């Protein structure tokens, strides 16, 4: 178990390093921030001065090494746009993203779990057909389109909820709902198929042959086993949302990490892009790590293999 | 006294390719303390008929089309789910085939034993644990108290089957139904399990239905043998007479296809010609007729009823096997 933990931690570090490295080089290919930062018609000298100030005149490898050395110390440079440390800029947006992701996940898991369980237990009924059709639509609907439609209906036509922005509970409802639709649809579909597989298992027949109450059979024998694949999916979804749902945050003008990174990319704000991606990758890797640990709790066979 | 009376039990599965007649008009009586060996090949209806009477078949596609199953005088088929649940695991214990998949992989063996004990007896918590320990000891699992804390994957196949048997026996059932309980095990372990069951039967007076396709197991364990084919009982009777003097051509074929010690290397084993019937479109008369070298014209058109051919010995056949064998020069 100890050596497994160390191995997984090293793998996680490697993954974050890989992501950060790729992002570093990709941003360098995208364009030159100095042309965007200076007004049109700036002289060659001014551009040159800015380039050397930003360290962009150094050879690429040196820039990379400097970047790595500083990143290890938690310094991702100063945002070109905001003039403040990039990591701090990203970190400030974290609460908004976490709030949106958390609400969407709670809502999505609650709806998805109930819908998926109903679909599996009421196999072959109208209930299953309805749930699965809605779930399929939910998963297939592009998030941006759903967001815009919700804004049009609840924000513009009915005027019940704000069309975008941040601050009150009312602002949270539409973006959280938009993401929850996708989350719940994904969970419902996976939980259903996972439960149907489990319901066919011999040990479910054993549990029924023991005369156990239906709730016991459902909770301890069916759901308990069906949760293992659903946990992975949930964690991946949570990782994606915590990394900032770029589209939803943009559509609803939600001041989260996803929208920040998008704006930084548009402005070639290298430090913010790098710090943002670093944060997103770290969260994703940490969640995956946590899920791996959770597996051991859920499935003793996996615990034994480690 | 009869513990179980099965009357005209008929079960079918509705599948996309039509209705599959899995169990057809099966009737028999099982006395208290009796051990019944049910023999037949895959698809003979031997497992389905017990699953049907315990309400363990998925409905749909399964459908009980008719019949009654009286357990201590009460009809299992017309009981509510709740009443049936109270019997299952309590008065009627079941042991399934394939111990590898019949235990829940994520729960400890102790929990899986405890939940059935707590469900059907007054023993709770520690006292249920004590009973679970006692049961593991009973089925011959060493260090039972430690083993309770382990998961199924930490047990070997034979040990898991013992756990299954412990679960089946946990609430001192009146009736124990074992479905291919030793099929997945190697012969040494199988012999141990059979000894164990025989011993428990003698000590607790349990009535047993032992479903298998292994004639040897039946010879060793059962008082009565019931041969099933195509969802019907072909022959039924005390083990001795049926083995010595089979009256159904199917039983005769099964017995002939067993290797016997004296003639091991001399001859190829007998094999019953043909293949099992397609139960979505079963033969019109005797289901075995198409494969039966002794079939009479009537066998192909009309289902033979069970008739008595001796003390408790019944056969469903239009032909008379001893005569047919004599004519064919087999005797």
Main CATH class of chain B: Alpha Beta
CATH architecture of chain A: Orthogonal Bundle
At the fourth level of CATH, the homologous superfamily of chain B is P-loop containing nucleotide triphosphate hydrolases
Structural class of chain A, please?
Answer: mainly alpha
Task: Describe the model.
The complex is a heterodimer of chains A (306) and B (331). With 306 residues, chain A is mainly α. Chain A has helices spanning 2-30, 33-37, 44-53, 60-72, 86-121, 126-140, 143-157, 169-199, 202-209, 214-242, 246-251, 257-266, 270-298, 300-305. In chain A, helix 1 runs antiparallel to helix 13 (270-298), helix 5 runs antiparallel to helix 10 (214-242) and helix 7 (143-157) crosses helix 8. The model of chain A has no long low-confidence stretch (mean pLDDT 86). Chain B has twelve helices and twelve strands. In chain B, the strands form two sheets. Chain B has an eight-stranded mixed β-sheet with strand order 6-7-8-3-9-10-12-11, with helices on both faces. Chain B has a four-stranded antiparallel β-sheet with strand order 2-1-4-5. Chain B has helices at 46-53, 81-87, 99-102, 109-120, 125-138, 144-147, 157-169, 187-204, 215-221, 239-244, 249-256, 321-327, and strands spanning 2-15, 18-31, 35-39, 62-71, 74-75, 92-95, 175-179, 207-212, 224-229, 232-238, 306-310, 313-316. With 331 residues, chain B is α/β, with parallel strands linked by helices. The longest helix of chain B is centred in the middle third of the chain and has 18 residues, at 187-204. Chain B has a single domain (2-91, 171-313), classed as Rossmann fold, CATH 3.40.50.300. The chains are: A mainly alpha (306), B alpha/beta (331). The interface between A and B is medium-sized, with 23 and 30 residues.
